[in-house]
Amino acid sequence: MSNNTKKAVVYVRLKDGVLDPQGVTIHKALTQMGYNDFLSVRSGRFFELGIAADAGDIDRQIDEVCSKLLTNPVIETFTVEKD
Amino acid sequence: MSNNTKKAVVYVRLKDGVLDPQGVTIHKALTQMGYNDFLSVRSGRFFELGIAADAGDIDRQIDEVCSKLLTNPVIETFTVEKD
Predict the structure, then answer these.
(1) Residue ranges of the domains in chain B?
(2) Å between A65 CA and nearest CA of chain B
(3) Does B8 touch chain A (CB under 8 A)?
(4) CA dist B45 to A57, A82, B19, Å?
(5) What one-character DSSP code corresponds to residue A21?
(6) Local confidence band at B39 (pLDDT 50, 70, 90 cut-offs)
(7) pLDDT tens-digit series, residues A18-68
């Protein structure tokens, strides 16, 4: 990343109580493979965003794109980590 | 999480130089929506693992399941964060 770029990472998780078929499937596979110490698996996604260093009101912009594009607010939540 | 469970999170990223079609698509969409301050988007996945507190050699176990099941070692790398 150049000096003209800031970075933010958006972590997207399913809300508590929402079924996570991918996590369930992976957990089953682990158990079948003999890895019985893994008691649960929950999956999520993240997006690393390169942002112009002179961008204005970046917190608001990130919030907007999370709600509009990166997540499904009905079933997902997100957290943002900035450098 | 109960006291009998430890947590680890595995973050899976595409290796540098590997094309990320999802990230490219999201970046294009952001630009078309007028969000020109976002210069790049790179996508990844993560898995929250609940692990038995009395599990032995857990670092080795996590490494194994990452290589065998959670990632494609040819094009992806992973990092592990433990509580």
Answers:
(1) 5-82
(2) 8
(3) no
(4) 27, 18, 15
(5) H
(6) very high
(7) 999 999 999 999 999 999 999 999 999 999 999 999 999 999 999 999 999
User: B5-82 domain in CATH 3.30.1280.10?
Assistant: yes
- Hey, which residues 57-76 in chain A have their CB within 8 Å of chain B? 58, 61, 64-65, 68-70
CA–CA separation, B32 and A66 (whole Å): 15
Is A56:A12 a contact under the CB 8 Å cutoff?
no
Contacts of B35 (CB under 8 A, 6+ apart): A61, A64, A65
Nearest to A10 by CA among A49, A42, A43: A49
Span B14-25, pLDDT tens digits: 999 999 999 999
User: What ipTM was predicted for this assembly?
Assistant: 0.91
Q: Nearest chain A Cα to B60, which residue?
A: A35
